[in-house]
Design brief:
22-stranded antiparallel barrel; 804 residues; globular; mainly beta; Maltoporin, Chain A
Length: 804
């Protein structure tokens, strides 16, 4: 029978079943997949006790049941993403026990897995991330952080813990996070929408409108269209403040001026300072060319604009800040992708290619830097750092930054795999990617004298105008052999070559500094409008990372596995010419894991114990006392020992309970020396930053009938232990330890036919999570004024949805 005839029969049968179902039965609740710490769904034919539904993942580049994959994987399915009200990066990482993160706001989140974090300064010229981010088959990792994709109409989020260097490559040294979209389906028309309104405690109001439609075009083609608009209310207040510069005596204020403080700053007092507006869409077309081949082109784009700061100043007050210059961010990106799938004989072939275009514009207040250096100069008896053309100290020498980052990434992967029902099977492929990153940073001081300003850039104290390129080539493969029906040996490797280059200008004018800037120019050729060129360097390296796995399937419900794997992160260029390039760092992973199902598929318990050895750690930092330029060095080594586990229990047909946890012991095994001969900046035995020792979550969902309505109530709690934001002992002494916290989300709702209504209360007890602590410049100068990035306060909302 032909594929087209089969499709027609399936479509007719599906329509008939749907009409009968809507006439005779209420909607069946909870068709969700298990997530680490998330309950599974019930089978429709279960009697009094529930049954957990299987979860399909593609972590190994093919569709498999989660319980049959010898990897530590946490997965959030479509229903679970909706149940937990997950819409952004910050939302889903909190429910992944193996993942921790830092953020400065939307579009600036960086994920870490299994404690592989050094608290580095995430400078645009610095190391690549240790966790790879993928949108479907295509990498979306950038130096700045992950794309903050609005999550709607998504099939699932997969978190693959541990080195994924064999199948996923360079930036997957510690793990990989994959965002998988729902694909077009030619078999049936489908659609839906949600409308949400919410109110943020201590802040503003927000709303969300999102919808999708799946339209069969022919028996072998369909298009899926998705769109969203989101407005997030702010919760940080920019309150009135004053700042008097010692050398000039000038006093600036962001509020009403007074006789003693007469300089009005451009940024003004405003409540709910950090609101966000996001809109975007996705279009995908799937065409079955014949019974063996299909092609899926897609395009996804998003535009997010945020105001203000997402950190507060504890010296000013809870959720309050006093800043003097406007702060705005625009994060606009588009990804066009093409996937071609087919068969050649008994082999499956897949090509996945993509083009990513991301443009970010950032305006930031940087007045702390000016103020504390001005005070440093005044206390030391120096002349003013910044003067006007007449030589007088500037009354308002506040700095502010205008910056842009432009990313252009091409990626191509071609892989072939054998039939999975054979005793010996394999997957092998070729991978290539190239990313160009344009970096522009203008550190501005209004009224700066011409001799201090960068040549050709009035009022610019510091200019960065650079082009960074990262290029990767790789061959990868894995081969599995069934030694017996229950014992399988898998070996894999990835052979790679990586290139990194950095070219352009950075620094001060020659009249201001002989350390960085025009004084160091070796070419008078202007680079994108800069006065000259003082940086042009590149490095390349190659190597191989292996993987070996032994899996024992005890029976159909239980298996254990042992894995040795390695991950790598390429080296790169230090833009400070006096510092040599930094080399790649490596991670060796020793892991013993288990996947088990019990009690007639009512209880699922998975986990892993592991040790990871991290060598030649890439660490980027600001040298003390404002040497002024981020430095990246390979120094020190670390060991991470841990256990991670997740459990789901269908207690009854109505009640499901799930939870996940991660327990880590992550510490340096060598002293960290910023430079040879320096005293240790961090010592052997010191705990690695960012990741807590313990992170856990638990979710309970109860479903019941109220007349003709299907109703539910749900509670979810996330706990995270203490952590440090930085590795260096001096920074820890100033910034302190970040406290532990628990966040609880509550929801209740009902559904009838295709309609649903839900009330939710996120962060029900209005707790403040200390997610990231930082200072605007080196802590020995600016550390007296730290900032804390926190979570969203208590948020109450109502959501109405319809499926058709």
């Amino acid at each position: 029978m032909t594929r087209s005839r089969l499709r027609k029969m399936k479509r007719t049968e599906a329509a008939s079943r749907t009409r009968k179902f809507l006439r005779t039965a209420p909607m069946v609740s909870a068709i969700s997949a298990l997530l680490a710490g998330s309950p599974g769904a019930f089978a429709q034919d279960a009697p009094e006790s529930g049954v957990l539904e299987s979860v399909i993942v593609t972590a190994q580049k093919r569709q498999e049941n989660l319980q049959e994959v010898p990897l530590s994987i946490q997965a959030l399915g479509t229903a679970k993403l909706d149940e937990l009200h997950i819409q952004s990066f910050d939302d889903y990482v909190k429910f992944l026990p193996s993942v921790s993160f830092t953020t400065l706001g939307p579009g600036f989140g960086v994920a870490y897995m299994r404690g592989v974090a050094s608290g580095e300064n995430n400078n645009h010229s610095g190391p690549q991330p240790t966790v790879g981010m993928y949108l479907d088959e295509q990498p979306i990792t950038t130096i700045q952080g992950s794309l903050d994709v609005h999550l709607y109409d998504m099939a699932r989020v997969e978190a693959l813990a541990g080195p994924q260097g064999t199948l996923y490559g360079a930036s997957s040294m510690a793990g990989t996070i994959r965002l998988i979209t729902n694909k077009p389906n030619p078999d049936a028309y489908d659609g839906g929408y949600n409308i949400e309104a919410n109110s943020v405690g201590h802040g503003g109001t927000g709303y969300v409108a999102e919808g999708f439609v799946n339209i069969p075009i022919t028996e072998s083609a369909a298009i899926r269209l998705v769109g969203w608009y989101e407005k997030d209310g702010g919760y940080i207040d920019n309150v009135r403040g004053e700042r008097t510069y010692p050398t000039s005596g000038g006093c600036i204020t962001n509020g009403d001026t007074t006789p003693t403080c007469s300089i009005a700053s451009p940024a003004r007092v405003k409540d709910d300072y950090n609101d966000v507006e996001t809109f975007g869409g996705r279009a995908a077309l799937k065409i079955d060319l014949n019974d063996s081949w299909s092609i899926t082109p897609s395009v996804m784009a998003q535009d997010a604009k945020s105001n203000g700061s997402f950190a507060y100043d504890p010296a000013v007050g809870d959720l309050k800040i006093s800043h003097y210059y406007p702060e705005r961010t625009s994060d606009r990106w588009l990804q066009a992708a093409l996937t071609l799938e087919g068969k050649i004989g008994n082999l499956d072939l897949v090509y996945a290619g993509a083009y990513l275009k991301r443009d970010d514009v950032v305006n930031s207040d940087y007045s702390d830097y000016s103020f504390f250096y001005d005070r440093l100069a005044y206390d030391a008896g120096y002349d003013a750092y910044w003067t006007d053309n007449a030589g007088n100290p500037l009354a308002d020498p506040s700095q502010y930054i205008h910056g842009t980052d432009t990313y252009r990434r091409f990626s191509h992967e071609l892989r072939v795999s054998s039939a999975q029902d054979k005793r010996t099977r394999f997957v092998a492929g070729l991978f290539y990617q190239k990313q160009k990153h344009g970096i522009f940073q203008d550190y501005h001081i209004n009224g700066l004298n011409d001799g201090t300003a960068v040549t050709g850039w009035p009022d610019t104290l510091w200019l960065t105008q650079q082009q960074r390129e990262d290029e990767d080539y790789a061959f990868f493969g894995e081969v599995s052999f069934d030694i017996t029906q229950s014992l399988t040996l898998t070996g894999g490797l990835r052979t790679f070559k990586a290139k990194n280059s950095l070219k352009g200008f950075f620094g001060f004018s020659e009249g201001y500094s002989t350390n960085f800037g025009e004084f160091l120019c070796f070419s008078q050729v202007s680079f994108r409008g800069s006065p000259c060129t003082n940086l042009d360097a590149k490095v390349d390296e190659s190597g191989t990372v292996p993987k070996v796995n032994l899996t024992w399937r005890i029976d159909d419900q239980r298996m254990v596995y042992a894995t040795y794997s390695e991950g790598f992160r390429p080296g790169g260029i230090n833009r400070n010419g006096t510092v040599p390039p930094y080399e790649s760092d490596r991670l060796k992973n020793y892991e013993l894991g288990w996947k088990t199902t019990w009690a007639d598929n009512r209880l699922r318990f998975n986990g892993a114990v592991f040790q990871e050895d991290w060598d030649k750690i890439q660490f980027s930092f600001l040298p003390p006392s404002g040497a002024g330029l981020t430095v990246i060095r390979n120094a020190g080594a670390a060991r991470i020992r841990g256990i991670e586990a997740d459990l789901a229990f269908a207690a009854t047909r109505s009640l499901t309970i799930g939870g996940g946890m991660s327990l880590l012991d992550a510490e340096l095994t060598e002293d960290y020396l910023p430079s040879p001969g320096d005293p240790p900046a961090a010592r052997k035995g010191d705990r690695l930053p960012v990741t807590p020792k313990f992170k856990a979550n638990i979710t309970a969902r109860y479903e019941f009938n109220v007349g003709a309505y299907d109703a539910h109530v749900q509670g979810a709690t996330v706990y995270q232990g203490t952590s440090f934001s930085d590795l260096l002992a001096a920074d820890r002494e100033v910034l302190g330890e970040q406290g532990s916290y628990s966040i609880t989300d509550l929801s209740a709702g009902f559904k009838k036919d295709q309609y649903s209504v839900e009330l939710f209360l996120n962060n029900a007890f209005d707790k403040r999570a200390q997610i990231f602590t930082f200072a605007q410049c080196a802590t020995d100068v600016c550390g007296v004024n730290p900032y804390i990035v926190t979570n969203r306060p208590r948020t109450f909302g109502v959501k109405f949805g319809q499926e058709f």
